[in-house]
Amino acid sequence: MSVPLGYYLVLGAVLFAIGLCGALTRRNAIAVLMSIEIMFNAAVLNFVVFWYYLHNGALTGQVFALFAIAVAAAESAVGLALVIAVYRHYKRVDVDEMRSLKG
Amino acid sequence: MNAIFLTLSAVTVLGAVLAVSLRNLVHCLLALVLFFLGIAGHFFLMRADFLGAVQILIYIGAVAVLILFAIMLTRNIAGTEGARRALGGAWWLGVGVSAALAGLMIAMTRRSELASKMPYGATEEGVVKDIGKLLVTDWVVPLEIMAVLLTAALIGAVVVALEETKKR
Q1: Which of residues 3-42 of B touch A (CB under 8 A)?
Q2: Running along chain B, 168 residues long, what does each successive block of 10 average in pLDDT?
Q3: For a FRET experiment, which of A37, B56, B142, B151 has its CA 20 to 30 Å from that of B63?
Q4: Which of helix, strand or coil describes residue B13?
Q5: Considering CB atoms only, which of A38, A56, A74 is closest to B35?
Q6: Structural domains of chain B, count
Q7: Does the interface ipTM go beyond 0.85?
Q8: Structure pTM?
């Protein structure tokens, strides 16, 4: 009928790795933020998967995933505001160019 | 159910891969929306209807539009940067690290005894009502803290993105 838990865990691991790959390799800061959103979503997917497979009639797992989504939304708002501030300062948003603090 | 899971997973992974690999940022955003839809589909498949609706409302409705505005505000609308590279210098290192991490995590799930577990069983009806009750009884303090956090993030985003006109 439905798939075992391991399938979903592999899916979450693959999605997280794709997001990490994007966050490490992309140069545009907005693309890096999008990759971080992918990683967030992979983690939230895992929360919901563990709730679905291991809950004992409780809904706490869904509430936890809800809080995680809210924190991710706050993060993306602040992150994009930071990108805009950086753009105003440097006139570009490449993460390679932000090296003012480099020793 | 199995075919639905495989189709949804394929769509989700395809969206994620396109979102991190396409050059045009607007195309990346569209692929990201596909990815968000795939995740929402997984939530619906796991009978977390409320979370699926929240996923669509927050991610596709708010975050995607926010990213679109950031793309519009920070670069030319065409999105391409001409001959400039989209990837950093040591991109192969990032790909290698994430591939190694994926292999490690998949190997760990293979060894876990949880991996063969099947779903606990269908939940009863009226789940949204129960989540609402939980949020205002057991989890009311985290809920209020979340409200404060969102307010702080809102004010912080406005302050950070505000133009620096006073200094000149």
Answers
A1: 5, 9, 12-13, 16-17, 19-21, 25, 28-29, 32, 35-36, 39, 42
A2: 89 95 91 96 90 93 92 66 57 90 91 80 70 90 95 92 67
A3: B142
A4: helix
A5: A38
A6: 2
A7: yes
A8: 0.90
